[in-house]
DNA sequence: ACTGAGAACGCAAACGCTTACGTTAACCGT
DNA sequence: ACGGTTAACGTAAGCGTTTGCGTTCTCAGT
């Protein structure tokens, strides 16, 4: 650190206003014990001088942090960036700053991120992404978060079940059910379900409901598991279609996979929805831009993020809150009745 | 803060090891002036006690942060999220954490973000997004950054000119030139250029080169300005096409706008590329997913982010570095020779 | 045995802010 | 007009580290 103390300090603001730093502090934090006149004046001067509280000093002195940690499964997936956008915007409204990390769906990495956030005394931690069907696998994370909350921190998850903290839950079963029902109503009775890693709760929920609804309607269902990122969903779908030549629809359990399927089918010269109908789940922004535009179940993604952030600003409840967010079926161009 | 296990402090570690906190600090930080025996012992005890440095105290006392601030023009634009992904990944490799903010292209907001980051003693600040053609408009930011770097911070920008710090520059002129040349080679001689706010340098660069290349080829050029976010580029394009019925191509200066144009044309029942060819610039992920897939000039977006982060990890050079990143023309389905 | 140079370590002053307490002054009722 | 409140401020004690110096100790050199 060569040089000039770049930042304006509270003491300078106080001096300029002709008051003590105590009064200046109180004025800025809006606490009582200061006349409105003085408080107003201090705030004005602070503004003019471009004063920004040194969060390190503030925190050290007993104030709390303004950092909110956000851990994403994957950073370049539109599903998550939409959620992140919601969190960031809500955070800025609440004068908080967001620190982003990503876990690549690796529990170990995720643990490391949480620990780092705890050490940073983050005011809140938000984890977005699917959990694991094996509770054992997130036991450590759960303990860590419990200790963190006991210590005054706030945590919330988006789309998880077992972490013991407040949760915003996209209604995955409902979403899958709606899409499946749509397919059934169109008349499809032989559908390929492109699924993801069965160890993810999101996958389990969506797949379970999809298969249930489809089977209840007497449809033949073929489930194909891929890696849920959509990287080879297209290839997987083509393979399955080869094995199931009578299939009339491909139901992908996420938009990412559905888009991959669409691309694969287009390359293979298969007409959608003429020959095969395709559906997704999530309604990422791209869904309506691609062609044919995608029939899917929409979640208000950025609102999921906003809701999670808001949960963390409220005091901890005695029992973890659970806010279920319903999905809404969006019928677009990628689905049609099966060719008779 | 109902105070559970107050964190272990350095003083406790020091006491347990029978040394002063000064020695303890030096031992842990691996500085000289401590015998290996003692240093080793202190480290062992710290480990046993589960000591974690209080980053606030450390920073306040003059230590440095591991925070990298990233300011985005817009948080939910794929162009920026791709860049952000590159930054985040590179940062994690370097054991840094990223704090994200967004400015909505508002200089005032941007200033506030920078100040906040400076106050947070961020180790580095990265600003992504177009600058303003009016240098006056970013004078304050420039000063702020200069002071920040003088104080030991590191800053880098992506896609800006005037900020006086290291820069990663997508070759906007080159990109626009390549696309324009492609159009010319296809035979287009009457094209509508969908441009953005002229106050943005990115717009100025792209538009300047596009118009230059087009005009040099003897083409009629109609420039339409929109807001560069793509919100009404579609409508704008339709309007321009009404006024220029002989136009055979629409060259949008960003993919976001191109996609909007594509949507607009599709709704209006115009055949692309049969009747009108459409091009973009950037090559966001969606570009190849939409239909018709978009002819555009590709920038390796996440690499832009990675490069910027890497620049900030190197010591400051005597003169700001400037890394120009070339674009590469990607011809897809949205362009074809004009209908004769 | 004495001096001087280092090595090894301790002291204490910041860092910029929050906040418990103490002080001052204006104002109340009687 | 006087004790007693109370609002409005100022004082100063931390918060947990880092670090510039000062101090002590060791040991080689003479």
From TrEMBL, chains A, B:
Segments forming domain HTH lacI-type: 8-62
SMART domains: HTH_LACI (SM00354)
UniProt keyword Transcription present: yes
Single GO MF annotation: DNA binding
Keywords recorded for this protein, A-Z: DNA-binding, Transcription, Transcription regulation
InterPro entries: HTH_LacI (IPR000843), LacI/GalR-like_sensor (IPR046335), Lambda_DNA-bd_dom_sf (IPR010982), Peripla_BP_I (IPR028082)
One Pfam family of this chain: LacI
PANTHER family in the record: LACI-RELATED TRANSCRIPTIONAL REPRESSOR (PTHR30146), LACTOSE OPERON REPRESSOR (PTHR30146:SF153)
Name used for this protein in its record: LacI family DNA-binding transcriptional regulator
Organism per entry: Microlunatus aurantiacus
Phylogenetic placement of the source organism: Bacteria, Bacillati, Actinomycetota, Actinomycetes, Propionibacteriales
